[in-house]
Amino acid sequence: MNLALIIIIVIAIVLAIVGGITEGLQFLLWVAIIVGVIALIAFLLRVLRKNA
User: Which residues are listed as membrane-spanning (predicted)?
Assistant: First the structure.
């Protein structure tokens, strides 16, 4: 996997944990979800292009 994709996934996980724990920073949970979805789409596109 690409290093940038791994970094994005790690950032998404960290933001999800911080957003879930800290009630005042609840918007981070939504940011983590969006970043996670973008990372998942990028990963799926990479896999589909590699297999095609």
Answer: 26-48
Structure tokens at 24: 């005042």
Q: What is the pLDDT of residues 1-52, one digit of tens each?
A: 688 888 888 888 888 777 667 666 677 778 888 998 999 899 899 989 988 6
Q: Which two tokens stand for residue 25?
A: 């920073």
Quote the CA–CA distance of 19 and 17 in Å, as a whole number: 5
